[in-house]
UniProtKB/TrEMBL annotation, chain A:
It comes from Herrania umbratica. Pfam families: 2-Hacid_dh (PF00389), 2-Hacid_dh_C (PF02826). This is Hydroxyphenylpyruvate reductase. Keywords: Glycolate pathway, NAD, NADP, Oxidoreductase, Photorespiration. PANTHER family: 2-HYDROXYACID DEHYDROGENASE YGL185C-RELATED, 2-HYDROXYACID DEHYDROGENASE-RELATED. The keyword Protein biosynthesis does not apply. Residues 109-281 form the D-isomer specific 2-hydroxyacid dehydrogenase NAD-binding domain.
Automatic annotation (TrEMBL), chain B:
GO terms for cellular component: cytosol. It comes from Herrania umbratica. The lineage of its organism: Eukaryota, Viridiplantae, Streptophyta, Embryophyta, Tracheophyta. SUPFAM superfamilies: Formate/glycerate dehydrogenase catalytic domain-like, NAD(P)-binding Rossmann-fold domains. InterPro entries: D-isomer_2-hydroxyacid_DH (IPR050223), D-isomer_2_OHA_DH_cat_dom (IPR006139), D-isomer_DH_NAD-bd (IPR006140), NAD(P)-bd_dom_sf (IPR036291). The keyword Oxidoreductase applies. The gene is LOC110413349. This is Glyoxylate/hydroxypyruvate reductase HPR3-like. Keywords: Glycolate pathway, NAD, NADP, Oxidoreductase, Photorespiration.
């Protein structure tokens, strides 16, 4: 398979790069100075693209690669892939579901605890020497808080299971109600927000879910409410979120994702009720290896004419 | 509520409210949020030697024979010598989960019951322990510093953390706090084992009689046992070596459960993987070597510091005192096991 050209959209994992290089003719897109020239030269040998949450395969790239057969994403989210175009051209698409579910759910709970109990702030308090002058202030209890989940897929369910162990009542919003699920369903995100203390974004990013957390939702959540985003930055109307936090119309936020990563609104840096993470939802040694193995496994299966492991299209 | 007060006050007229001594170091006071004193005054006649104009010793000896119960505030010690001044004492109500500041054997030999506050705090302490663990494994505080320091656009990537699921968690001290921690971490697919003074037959988790054995079979040790002579420095060099280079220690008990000098050495040399610490041997001093480490999360002894914990503490304090004076069973008496 060494002659099969695989285009890696951006740096994502050195183990994955290494394994791809062993098996295929790997092109690292980010090292190419002149992208259109490169594509023109190599278009007939590139049969696969490997993308992730930052870069994938948009319509332009797909059109530039006439021999493209498969897009394997090093993520579960597919918002960087033009799925319609792939369907149209018969291009297969795979992602990495399940292997990262636990890590993302763990991080969501970690963010809730860090925001409510001000773990990062109090760590700063100790490191700066302020503890010698006096005790840190009271924080907010997490156990028993009402958790509202937007999107009750694999990740949403895993968040719910963990939050239940803290006696948190669970409610959710989803495109359709799930009658077999015992959690309380709300038919709109605004109603969900009005009835919970912590609102968690755990759905896929699509045209419908863009800015699903908007001004109205933030108002409904209120000055004691907390937003936790482990989905995609564009799920939240970021300028609205920032002004609500700065003006204390919203109680706090734990954010792993932002609209224009790696840029983060500077107004957030001075706030003590936010926790800011550099998109690390699945960033553990164990899970990134499992994700990489899944990408390799899907590509190998495709080129050996075997069934794909985790196809989306 | 009104009915309960009337029943209670059937036993005591307002001049005969039972006497309760407030035992406190001058710099400590009962919490004002919620207002403990306002909530205690309707039911008890409170005596506070530090608020009296009379010298401490003479105030105490004048009232000694009416004092059957005392509240000890925070870490205010109760020594055998102090107990000798209160011959009628039958109850000490502690306002912390830990009781290492109280001479428990001296209380036992004088037939004095002691209650602690673990059950009021156990959820908040458990939440803090889990929060510290996720923070250390997933580098939350370090990553928050990274982002706030505007390093993300510069360095692009952040070092990977470690998965919590599947980790073997060893809980040292499976009391009310340890049990709440076990319940939470089970939902994250951690396996739980424990060490305690005695095996608990009703508990489904594997028991290790020896902390080193527990450490050898764990990826994470969580300390939530009482500090006593036996448990001082229970986490020593042998235990840390047994835990290993990837091992983590989370301490929400007392600083002196760990040999802190050795802990610092092991962390600096990479002989253990990391730590989440709410307590230290010499608070509020924290070893300076820890201040520069990214695999350590530091917390200023605030695992219990929520308004809900203090409200629960007030309820528990009032309930224990009322039970004592009505000859009913105490709610959170510390057993002699």
């Amino acid at each position: 398979m060494e002659s099969i050209g695989v285009l890696m959209a951006c740096p994502m994992n050195s183990y994955l790069e290494h394994e791809l290089e062993k098996r295929f003719n790997l092109f690292r897109f980010w090292t190419v100075p002149e992208k259109s020239a490169f594509l023109a030269t190599n278009k007939n040998s590139i049969r696969a693209v490997v993308g992730n949450s930052s870069a994938g395969a948009d319509a332009e790239l797909i059109e530039a690669l006439p021999k493209l057969e498969i897009v394997a994403s090093f993520s579960v989210g597919l918002d960087k892939i033009d799925l319609a175009k792939c369907k149209e051209k018969g291009i297969r698409v795979t992602n990495t579901p399940d292997v990262l579910t636990d890590d993302v759910a763990d991080l969501a709970i970690g963010l809730m605890l860090a925001v409510l109990r001000k773990l990062c702030e109090s760590d700063r308090y100790v490191r700066s020497g302020k503890w010698k002058k006096g005790d840190y202030k009271l924080t907010t209890k997490f156990t028993g808080k009402r958790v509202g989940i937007i999107g009750l897929g694999r990740i949403g369910m895993a968040v719910a299971k963990r939050a239940e162990a803290f006696s948190c009542p669970i409610s959710y919003y989803s495109r359709t109600e799930k009658p077999e699920i015992k959690y309380k369903y709300y038919p709109s995100v605004v109603e969900l927000a009005a009835n919970c203390d912590i609102l968690v974004v755990a759905c896929l990013l699509t045209e419908e879910t863009l800015h699903i957390v908007n001004r109205e939702v933030i108002d409904a959540l209120g000055p004691k409410g907390v937003v936790i985003n482990v989905g995609r930055g564009p799920h939240v109307d970021e300028p609205e979120l920032v002004s609500a936090l700065v003006e204390r119309r919203l109680g706090g936020a734990g954010l792993d994702v932002f609209e224009h990563e790696p840029e983060v609104p500077e107004e957030l840096f001075g706030l003590d009720n936010v926790v800011l993470l550099p998109h690390v939802g699945s960033a553990t040694v164990e899970t990134r290896q499992a994700m990489a193995d899944l990408v390799i496994g899907n590509l190998e299966a495709h080129f050996l004419n075997k069934p794909l492991l985790t196809p989306v299209v | 509520m009104a009915t309960k007060q009337t029943d209670y006050q059937q036993h005591f007229s307002s001049q005969e409210l039972p006497v309760v001594l407030v035992n406190r170091l001058p710099s400590f006071r009962l919490p004002s949020k919620p207002p403990f004193i306002d909530n205690l005054l309707p039911h008890f006649h409170l005596l506070d030697p530090h608020d009296a104009p009379e010298p401490y010793d003479s105030f105490l000896s004048r009232h000694a024979h009416s004092i059957r119960a005392l509240i000890t505030v925070g870490p205010t010690p109760v020594t055998a010598e102090f107990l000798n001044l209160l011959p009628c004492l039958g109850l000490i109500v502690g306002t912390s989960a830990g009781l290492d500041h109280i001479d428990l054997p001296a209380c036992r030999s004088r037939g004095i019951a002691v209650t602690n506050a673990s059950s009021a705090f156990s959820e908040d302490v458990a939440d803090c322990a889990v929060g510290l663990l996720i923070d250390v494994l997933r580098r939350i505080s370090a990553a928050d510093r990274f982002v706030r320091g505007q390093m993300w656009p510069v360095k692009k990537e952040y070092p990977l953390g470690f998965k919590l699921g599947g980790k073997r968690v060893g809980i040292v001290g499976l009391g009310s706090i340890g049990s709440e921690i076990a319940k939470r971490l089970s939902a994250f697919n951690c396996s739980i084992a424990y060490n305690s003074r005695k095996k608990k037959p009703s508990v489904p988790f594997p028991f290790y009689a020896n902390v080193s054995d527990l450490a050898a079979n764990s990826d994470v040790l969580i300390l939530c046992c009482a500090l006593t002579e036996e448990t001082t420095h229970i986490i020593n060099k042998d235990v840390m070596i047994a835990l290993g280079k990837q091992g983590l220690i989370i301490n929400v008990g007392r600083g002196s459960l760990i040999d802190e000098k050795v802990l610092v050495q092991c962390l600096v040399r990479g002989e253990i993987g990391g730590a989440g610490l709410d307590v230290f041997e010499n608070e509020p001093n924290v070893p300076k070597e820890l201040l520069g480490l990214d695999n350590v999360v530091l917390s200023p002894h605030c695992a219990v510091m929520t308004p809900e914990s203090f409200e629960a503490l007030l309820q528990l304090t009032v309930a224990n005192l009322k039970a004592f004076f009505s000859n009913k069973p105490l709610l959170s008496v510390v057993s002699n096991e």
